[in-house]
Amino acid sequence: MKRWITFAAVVTLGIAALVWSERHQVDVRVTPASLLYFIADSEWELSRLPIAATRMSDQEEIDIGNQLATLYSRDSFRNLPPEQQRQAQLVAEYVDRVGGRVAARAHRKLPYTFQYVPDMNFVNAFALPGGHVFIGAGLIALMDSEDELAAVLGHEIEHIDHYHCAERVQTEQRLRRIPLGSLMGIPVALFEAGYSKDQELQADAEGTKLAVWAGYSPLGAVRMFETFDRLYQEYVRRAQSPQEELSTVAIQTIEGYFRSHPLPAERIAQIHKLINDEHWVDLMSERNLEVAYIFWTDRARQAYDAGHYDVAARLAQQSLKMVPDQQMALMVLGQAEFAQADFSEAAATFRKALDLTPKDWQLVVTYCDALVARHTPAESLREYTTWLALHPESKGGAEVGLHVVLELGRLTLAAKGDAAADKVLFPTVSANAASLPPVYRGRYGWWFYEVGEYGSAAKWLQSAVEELPGDPALQTLLGWTLIEQHNLEGAMQRFESAGTQYPSSDYGSSNLLHRVINERRMGLAVAKWQAQQHDSALSEFSSVTYAQPEWLNPKWVESLYSPGVAKTIEEMKAEQKKRYGHRTVKID
Fold first, then answer.
1. pLDDT at 431
2. pTM over 0.85
3. Which of 108, 110, 158, 471 has the smallest CB count inside 10 Å?
4. Domain housing 401
């Protein structure tokens, strides 16, 4: 009997749909995707009929949702560095505040909670039964306004509010033929994957209404879907120049999202129609996304890692304009300026960061890297001593105080010569250079390279390498000095040896540590080129410049390496252009 009632209901719905469609003509082009959606939606609606008639209670749904949320919680704050952990907590509190404001207008009065997933690869949001909403950092990073965040959270709330999540649980229950209380094994992918086309469009419309009722602009939903449309065009349809620097995992997430959701153009059209129908045309004022600076900084870091230094600098400046005293943003900006050979700007930026944490010895070294690279020795020494006078606490602590004095000796050597530097360093740091630990002796030797005294540089670096042969940074620096002594075979041996070792975490500058791998390959390229091994040299050169494009900047090279190295790199650059034109190539 029940089967006949169900069959009659389906027939009645079909007839009603035909009548409605004849009276309400919709101008939509029929495509294979439309047919697939129709079949999938029809199957889904047929499966919903018995579920809707035997819907679980709110309390059952809440209990199941709580269990699933505990099992699938993506809270990984504890694995983040302290500063990122603090920022993740700020974002989480902000998401909870906005979500609570939107959820207050939901039809079902459930205990809605909102969890932030601090993973830039998670470009998605999803809901669990009973009121749990999750949203990833990768999705928030694409937003420009709080209204966009409200629209996304409203969408997910409506998947709960309209029983979409609950029905998915009950469908799983029926398929597995197990009691509701035994559904802990449901994969979270079922909730991340999206719903039927009708349910997604329903969540769009009703979620936008929730956001508007909470005081937000419907333009937030439009702009969010416009962003989705751009991502669809760039990553799913494989456009040539994507605007976002996204990881492979993030791109796969985006592609999966579009396989399980209606196309953005259709969703945008629905929201525009809703704006007109609801007379919301005057509600176009959006609120700033209060945590946008956190994501601008992260995007700046990603752009820097990808070698897009101008983009990194712009994003970092945008972040700092919103919240000035951010050490992470200052560091990214300084690194981007340094990579573009804007050494004076980099020094000023690193100093601002150092003012925030004057006991950060690695930042002290990075700051001095920029001072040395700008080749104003007297001015740089004066500027550094002024900073020391303003921050006497920087000399506190054995490790910090050691590096502070070492860098003072470095700048003194460049400005006044080795005799004056010795008076600063010894016996303050050690009795003499020979008694320095090998890592610091190597740094001492490199300072002589910086002022063009290659014989002294080789002497101290050779001494350091003999005592600490497993440090690739020391091997690399010695390789550069051997090039200047025309010992090309010895230089190549040093660079090759450095490639089989890992950088020491104790070795000076963060900029130097960042350069070690590519620097030793560029050193190998220079040595091979001067040894007339042109093909092999160009292969190394092309790979390094693809990964670290500052090597193509003559000002950057001339400021950090010898005139002979700068000349050799220009020769390789000319040969690369001759062979490959203006294309940037990677040859392994």
1. 84
2. no
3. 108
4. 341-429
